[in-house]
Amino acid sequence: MALLRVVIVGLLVVSAGCVGFGVGASDTGSVATAGQAPPGVDGGIVNATALVRAHERSLDGVGVDLATTWTHRSSVPGESNRTVRTRTLTDGNGTLWRRAVTAGDGDERRVERWIVGGRGFRHVVGGRTGRTDGMGPTARYRTARLERWLATGRYHVAAIESGTPERYVLTTTTYATPGGDPREADTVRYEAQAVVTGEGRVTAFSATLVTIERNKWGRQTRIRSYSYRLARTGGVRVSRPGWVPDIRADVEVADG
């Protein structure tokens, strides 16, 4: 158990470090008073949906460079280990989205999308390219998974950092969802942290969930981690990738 605790703590530290929080108990630069709390926040996250919608609105019309990472590790036979990384670049010219899925054996599959307005193209690296629909704000800013994690846990405001903009640091070590999952686990260890501006923009989020089940097969461990980071906002320029076909040529061929 001592070794397990060391492994878990190490994972949590790495998870928090990869998104560059730079926030500790004694170096937050917190202030005693603050302005109006972000939407969905009242001493903690009371409405993850309201917070995420405010986050999406704050990014509307802004150039964005966004990175996410989701990792699943399991000792359970038959469950696959994998890491999913996405990178989104969007501005007024279009949205370029990349995803890389790495399996436990090192095999990697990469997919890209290029969206302008209500339509675009999807390209499997090393494979085919085809048309695809446009993206709404939830897909463009990768917020579906973010919302689920923000709704998981009883958060509290750990610090309010002064500056422009003012930033709220929300943390939790208590795992809680409406369904009570994971119900089968004997032990649950959870740690998450979000950094949110007063208007509701989530600039960074990181979480790690460790579940341990003891059954007739022995001790089985699952580790899930997730990070969401706005690397840049404003000053982002997106170029049409070279794999996008010439749309005019497509039209000429279709017209015969």
Broad shape: flat
Main pleated sheet:
11 strands, antiparallel
Task: Give the number of helices.
Answer: 5
Instruction: Give me the strand/helix succession.
Output: HHEEEEEEHHEEEEEH
Strand content: 35-45%
User: In angstroms, what separates the terminal alpha carbons?
Assistant: 70 Å
Determine the fraction of residues in helical runs and give it as a percent range: 10-25%
Features:
disordered N terminus; alpha+beta; 256 residues; 11-stranded antiparallel β-sheet; 11 strands
Give the secondary structure arrangement, pairings included.
Elements: H1 2-18, H2 48-59, E1 64-74, E2 82-91, E3 94-103, E4 108-116, E5 119-124, E6 129-133, H3 137-140, H4 143-150, E7 156-161, E8 167-172, E9 187-197, E10 202-215, E11 218-233, H5 247-254
